[in-house]
Specification:
single chain; about 650 residues; alpha/beta; seven-stranded mixed beta sheet; 35 strands; about 25% helix
């Protein structure tokens, strides 16, 4: 019986005749796995062998989730044939976008296995932001592909036309089948869990001594026994190849009990990241492990010594590569300075009184995030405006509806007849629900409205290294709360650096930047003059761990809607900067003015399960009794970042 081959399958088959290695891309649920399956059946009918590399660790078309899987089509299996799993590379994560370098390296190694006949690489359905752009370019290089196919509904524009053009490869766009649908989070989780259970169906108990194993990835601390339970792990041989994958049962006294398919080879290493079975049985992503609260003496790297000002304690914290300072202390105008320490660059959250900031810092401010336009949050704009007269790039400013008009009004109140080409320039973005309005402000020129864009997940800005998200709260006027979400942090293994005899220097910064940008093929010049690839050096010298998130929220009423929105933004953050203007016995004034009490601040931090809390924007009526505010907060959330006045028993000096 002759069957009619669907047009999109025929188009792929014709492409494979010319280009035997093809990368299948497209949004989630567009039918990439089904297209690969259909093409393999048709090739088998011709007597041709076909390989598929399933590169979506969240739900590969075959094989265990949490891995990159290589399969060969076997027409004798099942009713119509199946992919026979040949080998896997354990990632121990379900998020290919977050752990892009391990994913790309796994694809690179497995692509070398596939010899004889066509190879289809089924890419993750990541088609947004820098993650998708980096994956497209990196997977094409790693798989040594000859052509790219994009499968998507005709109504969805291609977000990466420039990247595809840069590849210089033959490219084919195919319409997704009309019945193709994204399975949705619940069904995807169910299928993922079923696939994991199927992989473990032949598993047996194993017991390993952690002291005998190299642990790579982003594992919890060895002493955090409970954080290991349910973790997905990859069992590796001495060369880093995957022997099998397993699931941790318990960790006690350094002995790891797990279940995994039997392997004839004793594992020499474990890869552990963030995939785990949750208590209800589903396979998903683990929340970042957070150490118990510490004092400054226990972890001096977390924070700098806080400084006293006439505006009360001035908290300063260090989080990985970011230093965060409340410039005007806990009583002064809100102004949070985020210093990106390795790039000579600053972000500002709100623009209260900037008197303590030098003008040269304004030259390094790339982005400003304004909660709302009350004077104590926007008055510092005139300082920024004056400091940026000169040959500087536009500064991006984000805020609620109406922000562009407020800033334009401040600028129009000044005579700009002599600035000429040195006029300060700003790109202003206003969050209107799920749309981001865009305006251009140039001193001395009329405000210009530009094309708006859609906002997904509240993401206002994204770039390699971090993103900033926002939610809208109510203060009688729309107010934005912001989250600074750093990408995975890349750190140098100092002991390995010393073992090679290489001194630290700018070359390590270049190595990290290449890793973050996905430039794994780029070569690095070592201190001894030799050149080596980013991929090889990264594997030997670098480790990754989740970035520490920071959330900033101020000037909003204590309503159920505000709490719900803020909890969605702040849940699991390392640090929450949150206003706490009044004591609980002043709740009526707090309601009337749309502010929080200290109790509400503590309750929100506890519900959000943040690592530590920095309360601020205290009413000046509490300058003499600030200890009462801290005590009230501590009754509901004890993990306050250490600042003078926040510790129990602290008394203000005379």
């Amino acid at each position: 019986m002759t069957t009619t081959t669907p047009p999109h399958v025929s188009a792929l088959l014709e492409l494979l005749e010319r280009r035997p290695r093809v990368l299948l891309t497209g949004p989630p649920g567009s039918g990439k796995s089904i297209l690969a399956w259909s093409a393999a059946i048709a090739l088998a009918e011709r007597g041709e062998v076909c390989h598929c590399l399933a590169a979506d660790p969240g739900l590969p078309g075959f094989g265990p989730p949490g891995a990159v899987c290589l399969g060969r089509w076997e027409p004798t299996l099942g009713d119509h044939g199946e992919w026979r799993l040949e080998t896997i590379e354990a990632l121990a994560t379900l998020d290919g976008s977050r752990f892009r370098l391990p994913l790309v390296e796994a694809v690179r190694r497995l692509a070398e296995w596939a010899v004889g006949g066509p190879l289809l690489i089924d890419a993750p359905g990541v088609e947004r932001g820098i993650g998708g752009a980096e994956l497209l370019l990196a997977l094409a290089s790693a798989g040594r592909i000859d052509a790219v196919v994009r499968l998507a509904p005709t109504s969805e524009p291609d977000p990466y036309l420039d990247e595809r053009m840069l590849l210089g490869l033959e490219s084919l766009s195919l319409p997704a089948a009309s019945e193709a649908r994204h399975p949705g989070r619940q069904l995807r989780t169910q299928r993922r869990t079923e696939a994991w259970d199927a992989y473990l169906s032949a598993a047996v108990p194993l017991e390993l001594d952690l002291a005998d194993l190299a642990i790579v990835g982003t594992p919890p601390p060895h002493r955090a026994n409970s954080a290991w339970q349910g973790r997905q792990v990859g069992l590796l041989d001495a060369a880093g190849g995957t022997l099998a994958m397993g699931e941790v049962l318990t960790l006690e006294d350094g002995r790891l009990r797990l279940r995994a398919p039997v392997s004839a080879t004793t594992p020499r290493a474990l890869v552990v990241r963030d995939a785990m079975r949750h208590p209800e049985g589903r396979l998903g992503t683990a929340r970042p492990y957070r150490l118990p609260p510490v004092t400054p003496d226990e972890d001096a790297s977390l924070m700098l010594a806080p400084q006293e000002t006439h505006d009360g304690p001035r908290p300063t914290l260090r989080l990985d590569g970011v230093r965060a300072t409340l410039v005007n202390g806990v009583f002064g105008d809100p102004l949070l300075h985020l210093r990106l320490r390795h790039t000579k660059r600053s972000l500002l959250f709100d623009l209260g009184d900037p008197g303590r900031l030098p003008a040269r810092l304004a030259h390094q401010v790339s982005d400003v995030y304004i909660s709302h336009a009350h004077f104590d949050h926007i008055g510092g704009f005139l300082w920024l405006l004056r400091s940026r007269i000169g040959d500087y790039p536009p500064c991006r400013v984000y805020g609620p509806p109406g922000l562009a008009g407020h800033l334009d009004g401040l600028m129009r109140g000044i005579l700009w007849d002599r600035v000429e080409e040195k006029a300060p320039r700003f790109e202003v973005f206003e969050l209107h629900g799920e749309r981001l309005a865009h305006y251009r402000l140039v001193a001395g020129q009329p405000m210009k409205a530009l094309s708006p864009r859609d906002v997904e997940g509240g993401v206002l800005h994204r770039e390699p290294g971090f993103r900033v998200r926002a939610v809208t709260l109510d203060h009688g006027t729309p107010v934005l709360a912001f989250a600074f979400d750093p990408d995975v942090q890349i750190k140098v293994r100092k002991e390995r650096l010393e073992a090679h005899g290489w001194p630290p220097g700018p070359w390590l910064g270049e190595l990290k930047q290449n890793v973050l940008a996905g430039n794994v093929d780029a070569e690095i010049t070592l201190p001894d003059g030799r050149r080596q690839s980013t991929a090889g050096l990264a594997q030997r010298l670098l480790m990754s761990q989740p970035g520490k998130r920071l959330v900033y929220a101020t000037d909003f009423g204590d309503t159920s809607a505000n709490r719900e929105r803020l909890l969605t933004l702040a849940r699991g953050a390392e640090v929450l900067f949150c206003e706490a203007s009044f004591r609980e016995d002043q709740i009526e004034q707090a309601r009337r003015t749309g502010h929080l009490t200290a109790r509400a601040c503590g309750e929100i931090a506890a519900a959000a399960e943040v690592g530590q809390l920095v309360p601020f924007h205290f009413s000046r009526r509490h300058v003499e009794d600030v200890g009462e505010l801290y005590a009230e907060i501590r009754r509901h959330f004890p993990r306050l970042a250490a600042t003078p006045g926040s510790e129990p028993g602290f008394e203000e000096p005379d």
